[in-house]
Specification:
eight-stranded mixed β-sheet; 2 domains; 14 helices; alpha/beta; globular; single chain; Spore Coat Polysaccharide Biosynthesis Protein SpsA, Chain A
Length: about 450
C-alpha cells in the first residue's frame, strides 16, 4: 500500500479509532519509509475482530451434546459388502481425479528437540526417512493405484517454508510428480497485549504469529486454490497433520462414505481410551450440527442415581484428519464466511514502543488462531468415520513419553507387520524401529 499524505492521515485516524494510537506515534518517530511501511501493514489488520476475540475469550461452555452420526468400526467389521461398495466408490473418485489433499505442516519441531520443521524430523529406520517422505510416499502410492497424480498441497508457515521446499526438492524419488505438489504459506496475525494493542517485535515491525491450522481455509481462498480445484474437477479436499505418520488422507472407504451420505464434511475418529482422555471429541448439538469440542469444554457426565438416566459419554476422539466438499467450501467463501478466532496466552519477544532502542524482551501476550475443525458446525451434513487407533493414529507430539517419536515408531512397525501378515508376506528385514530398551532381556 502506497501512503500519500491524505492516505496516511486516513490510516492514522482509523488506527487511533481502533485503539492502536501507539502504533501511529511509533511510526511518526521512525524514518519516513519505515513509518509508512508500519502503517501500511497495520492498516490491513482487522483490529476490531482481534480485540473482540481476546475480550470474548473462550467459549462460554459447550451446548448440550450427544454422540455424532458415524460409520462405526463395528459396522466396518460386520458389513463387508458395505465396505467393499464404499471402497469402490472411493477408488472411483481417485481414479477420476476428483480428490486432492492438503498436508498441514506449518509447525516447528521445537517441542521434539528438533531444529527445523516438524516434517523434516527423521522417523527412520533409514536416515533420510522423514515424516515428509513418509507422507509423500503414501500419496505417491495412492496416485499409482488411482492411475493419475493426486494433487498435494503443503501448508507451511513463514518459518518452515524454505526448509520444507528444500525437503521436497527430491520428492520425485518418493514417487511424487513435482508438478502436482504446491506450497501454500499460512497467514499471520498480530500478537496483542491485555488491552488489545498490537505489539512490536522490533522498531517498525509488528509482532506476529501464525494464524493456526484453521488459517488454511483463508489461505485456500486467498490463493485461489478452491477455484483451481473446481476447474480441475476436484470434488473433495482432505486435510491432515504432518505429525501422524499413520494418517490415511486418501482412504477410499472414507471417500466412499462422503459420496454415499452426500456429506459436506467428514472427520476420522478413534474411540477414546477412557472418558477422561484429554482429546477433542466429535459431537452433535441439539440442532444436529456436528462439531469438535475441546476436552476442556466437555460437560461433566452425571452420576447414575436411582433410576436417573446417565448421559452417554462422548467417545469419538478426533485424529485431525478431515474431508471437505470443495464446492461447499467455495460457497462459504463466496458468502464471506470466516472461521472464528481463538485466543491463547503465550510468551512473545516484544519491544516497548516508548523505548524502541531497548532490546526486545519476553512478555506474556495473546496470540490468536483459527481451527480448521470449526468448519464442521457450518456444514448441513457432517459425519464421522471411526477407525482403529493402532492402525491410523501415531502422533509425534512430545519429546518423550506418550505420543512421542518412540511410541509412534512402535505403532508404525506393528502396522507394517500387520500389512505383511495380511498379504501372506514375511516380515520386512529392515532394521526395527523399536528402541532396544523396549525389547527386554534376551535369552
Amino acid at each position: 500500500m502506497t501512503l500519500d499524505a491524505a492516505k496516511r492521515k486516513q490510516v492514522a485516524a482509523a488506527l487511533e479509532a481502533a485503539g492502536q494510537g501507539h502504533l501511529v506515534a511509533h511510526a511518526d518517530a521512525l524514518a519516513p519509509a519505515a513509518g509508512a511501511a508500519l502503517l501500511a501493514d497495520a492498516a490491513g489488520v482487522p483490529w476490531a475482530r482481534l480485540t473482540a476475540a481476546i475480550q470474548d475469550g473462550a467459549a462460554a461452555g459447550a451446548p448440550e451434546l450427544r454422540p455424532p452420526q458415524a460409520l462405526t468400526f463395528g459396522r466396518q467389521v460386520n458389513e463387508p459388502e458395505l465396505v467393499r461398495r464404499l471402497s469402490r466408490m472411493g477408488r472411483g473418485l481417485l481414479a477420476g481425479g476428483r480428490v486432492a489433499t492438503l498436508l498441514l505442516a506449518g509447525g516447528q519441531g521445537t517441542r521434539l528437540g528438533h531444529d527445523g520443521p516438524k516434517g523434516t524430523l527423521v522417523f527412520g529406520p533409514e536416515a533420510d526417512r522423514t515424516l515428509y517422505r513418509i507422507h509423500g510416499e503414501r500419496i505417491a502410492a495412492a496416485s499409482a493405484q488411482a492411475g493419475r497424480p493426486v494433487p498435494l498441497y503443503v501448508l507451511v508457515s513463514a518459518a518452515t517454508e524454505d526448509a520444507t521446499r528444500a525437503a521436497f526438492e527430491d520428492c520425485a524419488d518418493w514417487g511424487l510428480d513435482p508438478e502436482h505438489v504446491r506450497f501454500l504459506v499460512q497467514g499471520t496475525l498480530p500478537c496483542l497485549d491485555d488491552a488489545g494493542r498490537g505489539l512490536l517485535a522490533a522498531p517498525g515491525v509488528l509482532a506476529r504469529a501464525p494464524d493456526g491450522h484453521g488459517g488454511a481455509y483463508q489461505t485456500l481462498v486467498a490463493a485461489g486454490v478452491l477455484d483451481e480445484l473446481l476447474e480441475q474437477g476436484v470434488d473433495v479436499l482432505t486435510t491432515y497433520q504432518v505429525d501422524n505418520p499413520l494418517a490415511r488422507p486418501l482412504d477410499p472407504l472414507m471417500l466412499g462414505w462422503m459420496v454415499e451420505r452426500k456429506l459436506h464434511a467428514i472427520g476420522k475418529a478413534v474411540r477414546k481410551a477412557s472418558p477422561d482422555e484429554k482429546v477433542g471429541v466429535f459431537a452433535r448439538d441439539l440442532r444436529g450440527k456436528t462439531r469438535i469440542v475441546e476436552y476442556t469444554e466437555l460437560p461433566q457426565s452425571r452420576a447414575q442415581t436411582g433410576g436417573e438416566m446417565v448421559e452417554a459419554p462422548l467417545m469419538m476422539g478426533s485424529i485431525a484428519l478431515h474431508g471437505f466438499g470443495v464446492r461447499w467450501l467455495k460457497g462459504l467463501a463466496a458468502a464471506g464466511d470466516e472461521l472464528p478466532l481463538h485466543r491463547a496466552r503465550k510468551t512473545v519477544q516484544a519491544i516497548d514502543p516508548a523505548q524502541p532502542d531497548a532490546p526486545a524482551s519476553a512478555r506474556e501476550a495473546w496470540k490468536l488462531e483459527r481451527f480448521i475443525f470449526d468448519l464442521f458446525p457450518k456444514a448441513a451434513r457432517a459425519e464421522v468415520q471411526e477407525v482403529r487407533r493402532e492402525w491410523e493414529f501415531a502422533p509425534v507430539k512430545n519429546a518423550a513419553g506418550q505420543d512421542s517419536l518412540i511410541t509412534a515408531r512402535v505403532l508404525v512397525e506393528a502396522e507394517v507387520r500387520r500389512w505383511h501378515r495380511e498379504r501372506g508376506m514375511p516380515a520386512p528385514e529392515a532394521p526395527s524401529l523399536r528402541p532396544r530398551e523396549m525389547d527386554g532381556p534376551t535369552a
